[in-house]
Amino acid sequence: MQLREKDLPLEELSSLAAEMLTAIRTAGGAIKLLVNGSVEAAVRAGADGVHLPAAMATTQVPRGLLVSVSCHSLDELERAITLDAEVALFGPVFGKNIAGEDVQPGIGLGRLREACSATSGRVSVVALGGVTEQNATECIAAGAAGVAGIRMFLR
Description:
By secondary structure, the protein is of the alpha/beta class. It has helices spanning about 10-25, 40-45, 75-80, 110-120, 135-140; strands spanning about 1-5, 35, 50, 65-70, 85-90, 95-100, 100-105, 125-130, 145-150.
């Protein structure tokens, strides 16, 4: 699970992450919590990991913290591998659409397949961007370890 609150100050983000961890662990779940964009908040809260945008893929991350990186190209994927990321969210595979407006074209299943092959298993590639229940299996067939999204899980 990724805590994605880009506008919260460090203290509030750390506190929210700690509260979420308490709820997750109280429920006895095996869910891992990653804090988006802030290594410091992840460390302060005791989170399982951090999710970094590609631009931050040079950030030093303490050992023991799971690392996920957003990647939009093979070059960014290579940087994620260099950072020892365990997961690379790769896309947008089918494009990015906000409020019915296309804001970023999709890179396609061919590029996803190429990315999955290029990693040689060094990082788990997760497809992102325009993924639906109908096309998720195509992403897995292309070699993705899984799919991620927001809208596809909201009902």
